[in-house]
Amino acid sequence: MQNGAAGPGGATRDGRSVEAVRMTLVGANPGAAVAGSDRLPGISNYFIGNDPKKWRTGIPQFAGVRYQSVYPGIDMVFYGSQGHLEYDFKVAPGADPSQAELQFDGAAKLNCATEI
Hints:
By secondary structure, this protein is mainly β. It is about 0% helix and about 50% strand. The chain has no helices and 8 strands. The radius of gyration is 18 Å and the shape is extended. It starts with 9 loop residues before the first strand and ends in an 11-residue tail after the last strand. Residues about 1-5 have low confidence and may be disordered.
């Protein structure tokens, strides 16, 4: 579960500096099932090239992506909020939330803010 526009210390086409931060779920289930969450109205169609065999139609749209059972009894959901990527851990009753351990690489400094 990682993404970077230009890699560590890279630059975009317009010359802006870009840094990448990699988030890793320590000890997580590498085979966690991935599914769309919160289906949205509408569909997408992808017409790639002139070969109809490569075309994809009727693809559903979702507001988020759910990684199921990243830890026993814990799902992780990614979604957009006001132009930013956010994530939540969904902890089932009786599951141990202390299993969820995040590791960040590529950041010089991290701050943790809590919501009230």
